[in-house]
Specification:
The chain is about 40% helix and about 10% strand. It is an alpha/beta fold. It has a single domain (about 40-305), classed as P-loop containing nucleotide triphosphate hydrolases (Rossmann fold), CATH 3.40.50. About 35% of the residues are buried. It catalyses: alpha-D-glucosaminyl-[heparan sulfate](n) + 3'-phosphoadenylyl sulfate = 3-sulfo-alpha-D-glucosaminyl-[heparan sulfate](n) + adenosine 3',5'-bisphosphate + H(+). It is an enzyme of class 2 (transferase).
């Protein structure tokens, strides 16, 4: 049962109305302004002239870490009715930030036109216990996006990012196998955060105490890398946005091995070089053990969300 006793602290302002129409024709005449909004560079004069406002997000990418949250946010920003918070704000998962209050959070949002949708992403939200209730108190009808990858691959990617950080500081780090497998029991080590994060269903069940499953949309992070447009069109529909992202906006960069973004004839953008790190080789027997461990959790995840993946 979802928690009905909580009252949203912003019950009116940031509600998302499915029938609300985005005036895209108006936006098309403000392309120069849209370009500045996408970059978060609105001037004081533009703010005054166009009645720009800082809005609470109507959709949040809540996870999953190393699932492709940055790529998803940047790609959604191709849509003229979407503006993004450039940095991870960590409002709901950080007690110190949360204590600063909702006006502090709003102040971290980009300026936008009143009919645009603001989206932020902080992957730690998905796995942090207090976050579902806190977001519910802000807006009980918010749209929630979760981007996932095959759980074992995601865990190795998580490890790789931490490993790279250690190496930059000339520090040594354990091998992935030694962290993922408990040396005493030879079983999967669920105390290891990279493993725990990949048990998607455990975290989702906590969120479902507050929000109905219809308010979540699951994005295939593996497909977003290889064939992003169909995934983005599904998100457009989920957010009740007119279809505006097209193949023109996405081009494959053979050097990087990733799709890059084309906003218009003069403005292109590729994701940071840190994306797509080469993973260390992992003992195949450990990979198999992890895949078998995640399998029942994956089946339950498919059942709850209605979205099936070809995971082992």
């Amino acid at each position: 049962m979802r928690n009905r006793g909580l009252q949203p602290i912003c019950p009116i302002e940031s509600r998302f109305h499915p029938s609300e129409q985005i005036p895209l024709r108006t936006l098309q005449f403000k392309r120069g302004l849209l370009h500045e909004l996408r970059k978060g560079n609105a001037t004081k004069e533009q703010i005054r002239l166009h009645n720009l406002v800082q809005q609470l997000p109507r959709a949040i990418i809540i996870g999953v870490r190393k699932g492709g949250t940055r790529a998803l946010l940047e790609m959604l920003n191709l849509h003229p009715a979407v503006v993004k918070a450039s940095q991870e704000i960590h409002f709901f998962d950080n007690d110190k930030n949360y204590a600063r209050g909702i006006d502090w959070y709003r102040g971290k949002m980009p300026f936008s036109l009143p009919h645009q949708i603001t989206i932020e992403k902080s992957p730690a939200y998905f796995i942090t216990e207090e976050v579902p209730e806190r977001i519910f108190k802000m807006n009980s009808s918010i749209k929630l996006l979760i981007i996932v990858r095959e759980p074992t691959t995601r865990a190795v990617s998580d490890y790789t990012q931490v490993l790279e950080g250690k190496e930059r500081k000339n520090k040594t780090y354990h091998k992935f196998e030694n962290l993922a497998i408990d040396a005493n029991t030879c079983e999967v080590n669920t105390k290891y955060k990279a493993v725990r994060t990949s048990i998607y269903t455990k975290h989702l069940e906590r969120w479902l105490k507050y929000f109905p499953v219809e308010q979540f949309h699951i994005v295939d992070g593996d497909r977003l890398i290889t064939d992003p447009l169909p995934e983005l069109q599904l998100v457009e529909r989920f957010l009740n946005l007119p279809s505006r992202i097209s193949q023109y906006n996405l081009y494959f960069n053979a050097t990087r091995g990733f799709y890059c973004l084309r906003f218009n004839i003069v403005f292109n953008k590729c994701l940071a070089g840190s994306k797509g790190r080469i993973h260390p080789e992992v003992d195949p027997s450990v990979v198999t053990k992890l895949q078998k461990f995640f399998h029942p959790f994956n089946q339950k995840f498919y059942q709850i969300t209605g979205r099936t993946f070809n995971w082992p």
